[in-house]
Amino acid sequence: MKRSLLTLMLWAWSLCAAADSTLWVENAWVREAPPKAHMMAAYMTLKNTGSGDAVLTQVESPAFGHVMLHKSQVVDGVARMIHQDEIVIPAQGAVELKPGSFHLMMPAPEKRLVEGDRVDFVLTFANGGTIRIQADVRKKP
Amino acid sequence: MPSAKPVTDFQLTDHRGQPFTLENLKDNWTFAFFGYTHCPDVCPTSMAMLAQVQGKLEQRDGLDQLPQVVFVSVDPERDTAALLSQFVPYFHPAFIGASGDEQNTLNLTRQLGILYGKAEGSTADNYLVDHSAAIILLDPDGAFRAVFGVPHTPDLIANDFLAIKNYYEATQ
Q: Burial of A70 by CB count in 10 Å (0-12 exposed, 13-18 middle, 19+ buried)?
């Protein structure tokens, strides 16, 4: 019972820890990288139930020296990663950070992160609001 | 079914430091993907997807040998054999990493219609590489047989591979 309550609390916390209650983050995860990999990626779904657009401008994490906003795009069969200054989550809408699309890119830390680890991120929006989330490290396609 | 296009010899080195040439494409089917180990999104996604394809094929009856999967580096400056030996087998122990100097890499990529180049805004030690996202299928003669464009799905690639293999064997 205690364990399930703790699990529920952790789940609720990972689902959303928003200062701004109109913004939600769901299903945040970091892809486990191969040993010695230099770069890692993180994914999540950002939901905005508010009446105005939300603009994600910065992400920080104590686990990584630097977090960049990126988007992978395939144009004429060629994949490229494009740096994003911001990611707009439209009013009453959602943006999915997912493989092959928007993602966070981070230089891998010296101590390798593996499946089961959890990583903190702080998301900062253009209006000054922040959201603290935890992401699971997962091994998946 | 399009006809196969023969590939002329090329000289790469695999992640164990052994030569990887046209001879290594003979006697087995090969899926080739072109990427780089500093790529955190598209390349790991494609490699994990190819591991799923192998998993699908392992469950099929009548397939005596799984195709080989080769990750060819489009970033040979940074992708040493030591780095490839950590990166590539992580996705599947049988996967092969291969790299060569620019001339030898271009020799293979140009034959297969693969494009790559450093992204705009690159600096000498901090850069991204744009690269074709396609997966290339080569037949046991070492000839270019098919190209799988994105998006990639394991079931589709496994099924198409078996159809192409059956056609190839029926026409030998």
A: buried
Residue B25, chain A, CB below 8 Å: the answer is no
Q: Which of B61, B129, B73 has its CA nearest to residue B98?
A: B73
Tens of pLDDT along B144-171? 999 999 889 999 999 999 999 999 999 9
Per-window interface: A 94-133 vs B, CB < 8 A? 99-100, 103, 105-106
A10 pLDDT higher than 70? no
B90 CB neighbours in chain A (<8 A) are 34-35
Check whether domain B5-119+128-170 has CATH 2.60.120.1440, yes or no: no
ipTM here: 0.89
The nearest CA of chain B is from the CA of A102 a distance in Å of 10
| Neighbouring C-beta atoms of residue B20, cutoff 10 Å | 22
Q: For A2-138, which CATH class? A: mainly beta
Which residues of chain B does A29 touch, with a Cβ-Cβ cutoff of 8 Å? none
Residues A22-81 pLDDT 10s:
999 999 999 999 999 999 999 999 999 999 999 999 999 999 999 999 999 999 999 999
Nearest-Cα distance to chain A for B92, in Å, is 11
The residue-averaged pLDDT of A85-114 equals 96
Q: What is the pLDDT of residues B17-46, one digit of tens each?
A: 999 999 999 999 999 999 999 999 999 999
What's the N-to-C CA distance of chain A in angstroms? 33
Q: Which residues lie below 8 Å from residue B169, measured CB to CB, with a gap of 6+?
A: none
Extents of the domains making up chain B: 5-119+128-170
User: Chain-centre distance of CA B134, in angstroms?
Assistant: 9
CA–CA separation, B28 vs A71, rounded Å?
36
